[in-house]
Amino acid sequence: MIAVSKFSISDLERITGVKAHTIRIWEKRYSALSPGRSMGNTRFYDDAQLVKLLNVLSLAECGYKVSKLFRMSEEEIKGLLEQGITKT
């Protein structure tokens, strides 16, 4: 059985350095992440969403726009990361 981690929005903030407010805005504006909800309506994120956010942030540091990255498929993001492309 595979264990799936659950992260709160404050966990994502602590791990990535992105403010919770910004994460919420990205969710609304770009449908960037799709958090689950607890019975108390608290957001929680799984491992895949954390990895997606970290990958987007890595590419954003290379000059890619977050708005464009969140519109890309997981495969496209992985392809950019594997190629090690930096924006010229």
Separation of termini? 44 Å
Count every helix, treating DSSP H or I runs of 4 or more residues as helices.
5
Structural class of the secondary structure composition? Answer: mainly alpha
- Report helical residue fraction: 40-55%
Uncertain regions spanning at least 5 consecutive residues: none
Percent in strands: under 5%
Description:
The protein has helices at about 10-15, 20-30, 45-60, 65-70, 75-85; strands spanning about 35, 45. The protein is globular and about 40 Å long. Strand 1 and strand 2 (about 45) form a beta hairpin. Strands 1-2 form a two-stranded antiparallel ribbon. It has about 90 residues and is mainly alpha-helical. It is about 55% helix and about 5% strand. Helix 3 packs across helix 5.
Write the layout of secondary structure elements.
Elements (H helix, E strand, L loop, with lengths): L8 H8 L3 H11 L5 E2 L5 E2 L2 H15 L4 H4 L4 H10 L5
Antiparallel strand pairs: 1-2
Throw out a few tags for this protein.
5% strand; 88 residues; two-stranded antiparallel sheet; 55% helix; globular; mainly alpha
Give a concise summary.
With 88 residues, this protein is mostly helical.
